[in-house]
Amino acid sequence: MAMNRVQFQSGLSLPAFLARYGTESACEKALFAARWPQGFKCSRCSATRATTFMRRGQTHWQCASCHHQTSLRAGTLFAHTRLPLTTWFLALYLLTQSKTNMAALELTRHLGVCYRTAWRLKHKLMQAMCEREASRKLGGRVQVDDAYLGGERNGGKPGRGSENKRPFVVAVATDDEGHPGMAVIEPVPGFTTAAFKVWYTDRLEKDAEVYSDGLGAFRAAIDLGHAHTVIDAGGGRAACEVEGARWVNIVMSNVKRALDGTYHAFRYFKYADRYLAEAMYRFNRRFQMQAMMPRLLVAAARCSPWPESRLRNVPVFAR
Ligand SMILES: [Zn+2]
Fold first, then answer.
1. Ligand 1 centre from 172 Cα, in Å?
2. H-run or E-run covering 62
3. Could you give the percent of the chain with pLDDT greater than 90?
């Protein structure tokens, strides 16, 4: 089964990680390569010639054309922090190579930083994952299901529409043999036709065929020209055995279990976008464990700065 390939693949070992990223200068070189793969490029005028100088112990670049000055971290997710890059890189390693999600509290122990610092690191890196996944679209056969975060039971479906819960969607694309490909896992403003019209437009390719249960809002797919098949889970069969819904049910239960097992006091409602983006990012790279860390480094180098005030100021229903 495909999942065994995920569980038994070799990730990036700790000795290999330390050999590659064990010193501050090694991390600086890696960040430079992630940010400027073709060599320095001015963020203001795109010129490639610059002079370097040191300020407060940090290398700075001054563009030869427009004289704009920048540092390695400025304008990236690594801006506005005095944490050594070795600590950042260890966080990148732990969040991508661990088998299960790692909460900020556990990060504090591994990184030797206070909770607030670990929280910021974790949320900044989840934000990079979120932005990396923002443009993903699913094509082919797409199984879709809905659930809630928050409330008494994480992810249950008590009377679709309870208050103080955050509705979210799991969608999994499958190939002709029924094997799972990419997934989208994210909050939606509600399980309404209007919300699903927006969601389908954002997340489905034109050729996507939707498989879902009988919830009315899922039918918005038809209005947008997608084929739509309602999966009937009746007849005494367990939902996960129903053809056309197997993978979305597996992914849904894995997401719920991972969130329940890791984030006991997690504020689902407010930060659901990031927590679900983390689940989505990891799922979509499940066959490339080794590459996940350097890829997340590139995503972080291309992500704009997220100071704590911006991290905490989340419009709840923004997409
Ligand atoms: Zn310039």
1. 43
2. strand 58-63
3. 69
